[in-house]
Design a protein that fits this description.
Length: 260
């Protein structure tokens, strides 16, 4: 099995940008996920600023694995949807300018039926973003977790080909009671990015929680093997939302993945 392309989500480190890049460089990862809602918001980053950021990344020997762009609401919510779409387009342009091809976000709730106003709204918004992304050279990559792999595949199949990529997040799937293995079986050919995150789910309570990588229910050796069947060569990017000590825990997560 080929060696993993490892990256770190800078947002998870909770450090200023330059310090976060220094830490990532010390771990000898090949990429980082930039947060387009933080210091690198496309509204505030001029073309000169983008060139300076690329130079800074080059100095640290790092590439942008993807751009993260978390919106408060999904593309299924009518309120301020046009504003959300335009902001996502700006993030797609930023990704391309920084040498990345993916923008990561959760797309919103996938309706149970492939019909009705909510379905039409979601597919129309994602179709518009897909068309724009193909034009600029960066795609939206829907992060798994809020629905089953089968439901997300149903959404993808309803869009023009190449409109939407997938970010596999095993931890989010587990926390919400879904199977990462089943998600890969449904979405394998569409998965272009992975958030390496772990979790456990308490069926009695009907909810789950994120845990340190390797200490939850995600079977990463099996997931690696399953993605290998689809010739996956994208990044495995460490994400930690609720770490008490992010630098220590992310460093340990990298060590764990390198040992798998």
């Amino acid at each position: 099995m080929p060696s993993l392309r490892l990256a770190v989500q800078l947002r998870s480190l909770r450090l200023p940008l330059k310090k976060a890049l220094q830490v990532a460089n010390g771990w000898r990862v090949s990429g980082v996920e930039i947060d387009a809602r933080g210091e690198t918001n496309p509204r505030d980053l001029s073309q000169t600023g983008r060139r300076q950021l690329r130079k800074l990344l080059d100095d640290f020997g790092l590439r942008v694995a993807a751009v993260g762009f978390r919106t408060r609401r999904g593309y299924d919510v009518p309120d301020q949807l046009e504003r959300r779409i335009e902001a996502t387009k700006a993030a797609l342009q930023l990704a391309y300018d920084l040498g990345a091809s993916l923008v990561v976000n959760q797309v919103g709730r996938v309706p149970e039926k492939s019909e009705g106003p909510a379905w039409a709204l979601l597919t129309e918004a994602l179709g518009e973003l897909g068309c724009y992304g193909q034009r600029v050279g960066a795609l939206l990559a829907a992060e798994t977790g809020s629905e089953s792999g089968g439901d997300l595949r149903r959404l993808i199949d309803a869009l023009p080909p190449g409109s939407l990529a997938v970010t596999l997040n095993p931890g989010n799937l587990i926390v919400n009671g879904f199977s990462p293995a089943e998600a890969i079986a449904e979405l394998g050919s569409h998965i272009q990015y992975v958030h390496a995150k772990d979790g456990v789910h308490d069926r009695a309570r009907g909810r789950g929680v994120e845990v340190e990588l390797g200490r939850g229910s995600a079977d990463f050796p099996a997931l690696l093997g399953a993605l290998e069947e689809y010739d996956y060569r994208g990044y495995w990017t460490i994400e930690r939302e609720n770490a008490a000590d992010p630098v220590r825990e992310i460093g340990q997560a990298l060590s764990y993945l390198r040992s798998v």
